[in-house]
Design goal:
This protein is an alpha+beta fold. The chain has a single domain, classed as Cytochrome p450 (Orthogonal Bundle), CATH 1.10.630. Helix content is 46%, strand content 8%. The chain has a five-stranded mixed sheet, covered by helices on one side. A three-stranded antiparallel sheet has the order 4-10-9. It is globular, with a radius of gyration of 21 Å. It starts with 26 loop residues before the first helix and ends with a strand. Keywords: Heme, Iron, Metal-binding, Monooxygenase, Oxidoreductase. Pfam families: p450. Belongs to the cytochrome P450 family.
Amino acid sequence: MSQGGAIESPESPDYPFTGPAALEPPAEWERLRLRCPVSRVSLPSGDEATLVTRYDDVKQVLSDSRFGRALSAPDAARISDTESGGLFNSELSTTLPQSGEGHQRWRRLVNRWFTAKRMAALRPGIEAMAERLVDEMVEHGQPADLKAAVGFPLPVWVICDMLGVPAEDRDRFAHWSDSLLNLTRYTQEEVETAQAEFFAYLGGHIAEKRERPGEDLLSELITSTDSAGELMSDRMLVATGLGLLVAGHETTANMIGKMVAMLLADRRRWERLVADPSLVRTAVEESLRFDPNPGLGMVRYLDEEVVVGGERLPSGTTVMCSMASANRDDGAFTEAATMDIGRSPNPHLAFGSGAHSCLGQALARTELQVVLAVLLRKLPSLELAVPSDDLRRVEGLVVGGLREVPVRW
């Protein structure tokens, strides 16, 4: 038996899948949706998991509280090729409450910083920073790497400002978060070193905030009680800060690059946006839905038997949700294989669904919308500096992205 609850099979394909090019989806998505929507796959660790690829099944798993996140369970599949199985299988992943009322209390505390009202207040500052970064990119000349010049520094600046940590430490954050999001790139020793350094850094930062609080999220969380009247422990504060730093820059930085690359890969999309900037919001949502290179997906663990897509999944099953495949399901979206920047409504699952949907999705949407609007206004002639088929993927990490996005104007 493999960890994950099923008999190992040589037919189980390696997961995550890769497409023929960085902006093309893997053929396996459509094949599995049509023929085997609940299937077995082999993870980078060598353990097996159950993969769901259809929209309705993915939404069911993500919305059903019976699918938990206890991937530290002895029979849960290990994700990465390190001995520990990576961040999802670590003790760190269970520091924060993973389900039930405890999880909801934690979300309510943190969510105060991600409300629509707060995003509206942040937008002018994000726009000013985006304009500054684009101006600096232009000053340095073309061709330029849009990801390095704009896609990475903008979300890092935003989340560092929210947490009250120095943005000049962003290169350290990038290394630490890459290590924690490892699939095949780093050794067990490198991952453990990064985690220890990250914990020590944030622990020291929180200690400073106790002495000299500021107007930032961590300073507020130190003194805030949840609905049960409880304060966060130092370990929960560190885990919260770490999770927000990793999620707050890694995924959005990659998505900025992918969004712009997808829109520029077919010049008609970009020209339609230049002619009608009111489509920015729907273009962002469609970019999120159409993302061909999102990374691993979301992982869940069953401690009771559940039926999904007509298949009976036993207790102890590790379930992998491919939101990207679900987002290309013709049963949920008209002409799902076509990128329509005016698509509305667009109930994609890029941010998950249910009680564990992405807490920072309002911030991510704000950043994506602002960057796109600024680029359309300041650089309407923007184009890829290489053929789209020559774009290179980020390899070996839980998140998907492009190594660089060469552009000219």
